[in-house]
Specification:
Elements lengths: L4 E9 L4 E9 L2 E6 L10 E4 L4 E4 L1 E3 L2 E2 L13 H10 L2 E9 L6 H12 L5 E7 L7 H13 L4 E5 L10 H10 L5 E5 L3 H13 L8 H4 L2 H18 L3 E3 L5 H13 L5 E5 L1 H5 L28 H4 L5 E2 L3 E2 L3 H5 L17 H18 L9 H15 L17 E11 L18 E11 L2 E5 L2 E2 L28
Parallel strand pairs: 1-4, 1-5, 6-8, 7-15, 8-9, 9-10, 10-11, 11-12, 12-13, 13-14
Antiparallel strand pairs: 1-2, 2-3, 5-16, 16-17, 17-18, 18-19
Helix pairs in contact: 3-4, 4-7, 7-8
Length: 482
């Protein structure tokens, strides 16, 4: 049983406010958020959070730990991936079970849960759908069974032939079969545009890493998002657009949210899209930055301070391929795509959304820092709500799991690849300066990481069943009511 804790002297970020308060933890749950010094517990361990911010543990709703695409396999496993997450203040990940050909959803889920057993932190799962029955009634029964197993969200792709690609008819069939309390996540790139752009580059012999971004043009993402949202509206399905890599992509979602005339539309972005641009493809170590969608030209780039009111999450799309895998072919069409990011998610988002916003404001830019409550929304509360984990996860509220991140915003820190706990052997943010560091991470009342030392054991993580969400309780702008 987790010990009794009192987190004292910190600034506590709740969904409603930032408070000077003590957080009481008992039996692995939040027992209360009280005035400083209001409660003294005999035998409780006191943790001094003086000078620090106390956030809810981060919920990353989009990770790929121990990924097997059928073509490539990452070199990590669930112990390595969740250890990496813990050092970054991530206390819950929502990863994916893949329905490989011939599998039912329960079979795919069970196979993935076996792989997840060494996890150090808690986890939920989405289902990558590749083979849904064509009969509408049977398709509906399959999806209802999946939802009832604790997986209320599915993943679909508008590209990646032949493994994952779903054409418009398949998308419509799936959207129509979905129960009204489920959610479809969409990887949006127009496959015809990607195939055409890549084919022309291959024909010209332009397949070095320098051409990766040109092979997947930003217009392909914007068009696909627009089309997917239209199809979802026709079918009445709630959708969540993953890893928006351009400002124009987020604007398409904002228009749909503002129109307020269809089912909910959510979206996310990732730190790579507001920290990095496509100049990396013509610089040393270009292979480090091969991912889909690719990094974008500055004119297309996401600015976190422009999009935070539209997006519902900052995720990582974490994917830990090794340098050897990245360097095996000097051909972007053969290089596995994906970046590690779990350990740097909070630092990068805090720095861009709060610290650098203050610097930009001081320099005369018409920007304002993201409020800390909204930062917690993006990194914990909304992901938990949208994917059915709230109120167990996602906020510092009595009765919820005691998942806490104590963050010291004072030090200036240089990210070093050698300090990371991933296994791939590189970090896309190596040498960059961020503001603050993760000091203490608490998972279900257990002090998991403290001052750079891991205390948890593999296998302590638990599968958190996602609950179906009543979308009638979703405000059209971005979030779910408490």
């Amino acid at each position: 049983m987790a010990e009794r804790l009192i987190i004292q002297n910190g600034q506590v970020v709740t969904p409603a406010a930032v408070l000077a308060a003590d957080v009481l933890v008992e039996d692995g749950r939040i027992a209360g958020v009280v005035a400083p010094g209001a409660v003294a517990w005999a035998g409780a361990r006191a943790i001094d959070a003086g000078g620090c911010l106390v956030f809810p543990g981060v919920v990353d709703p989009h990770t790929h730990i121990q990924l097997d695409t059928g073509i490539y396999q990452t070199v990590d496993n669930w112990e390595i991936g969740t250890r990496t997450a813990a050092f970054g203040g991530v206390t819950t990940v929502v990863d994916f079970a893949t329905q490989f050909p011939g599998m039912t959803f329960p079979q795919a889920l069970e196979a993935r849960l076996v792989e997840c057993q060494p996890a150090l932190i808690d986890y939920g799962l989405h289902m990558m759908v590749t083979d849904l029955p064509r009969d509408p009634d049977e398709a509906r029964r399959w999806l209802e069974e999946l939802r009832d197993l604790g997986v209320p969200s599915i993943k679909l792709y508008t590209t990646y032939r032949p493994n994952y690609y779903a054409d418009d008819a398949t998308l419509l069939h799936t959207f129509r079969a979905m129960p009204g309390d489920m959610l479809a996540m969409l990887h949006c790139e127009n496959d015809a545009m990607v195939t055409d752009a890549t084919g022309r580059l291959v024909a010209a012999g332009q397949t070095s890493w320098a051409y990766h971004g040109q092979g997947r043009p930003p217009e392909a993402e914007v068009e696909s998002i627009r089309r997917v949202m239209h199809l979802a509206k026709v079918a009445g399905a709630a959708v969540y657009i993953v890893h928006n890599s351009t400002a124009q992509s987020v604007r398409q979602v904002a228009k749909a949210q503002q129109a307020n005339d269809g089912p909910p539309v959510f979206c996310e972005t990732c730190p790579q899209y507001f920290w990095l641009d496509d100049s990396r493809y013509t610089a040393p170590n270009a292979e480090h930055f091969i991912l889909q969608p690719p990094l974008r030209p500055p004119a297309w780039q996401v600015d976190l301070l422009d999009v935070w009111t539209t997006i519902s999450a900052v995720s990582t799309d974490h994917c830990d391929y090794s340098l050897a895998q990245k360097q095996e072919h000097r051909d972007f069409t053969k290089t596995p795509g994906g970046l590690p990011g779990l350990e740097t998610l909070f630092q990068l988002t805090y720095t861009a959304g709060v610290h650098r916003a203050v610097e930009r404001q001081a320099a005369g830019e018409p920007v304002a820092p993201i409020p800390l409550t909204e930062l917690a929304r993006l990194l914990a509360t909304d992901p938990a709500r949208i994917f059915g984990l709230f109120p167990q996860k996602g906020a510092i509220l009595p009765g919820g799991d005691a998942d806490l991140l104590i963050y010291d915003p004072a030090p200036e820190v240089t990210i070093r690849a050698a300090d990371q706990h991933t296994i791939g052997g590189y970090c896309p943010y190596d040498g960059m300066t961020v503001q603050g560091r993760v000091r203490t991470v608490i998972s279900r009342g257990d002090v998991l990481v403290e001052d750079g030392t891991l205390h948890g054991a593999p296998g302590r993580g638990q599968f958190v069943r996602g609950k179906p969400v009543d979308w009638a309780r979703v405000t059209r702008k971005k979030t779910v009511t408490v």
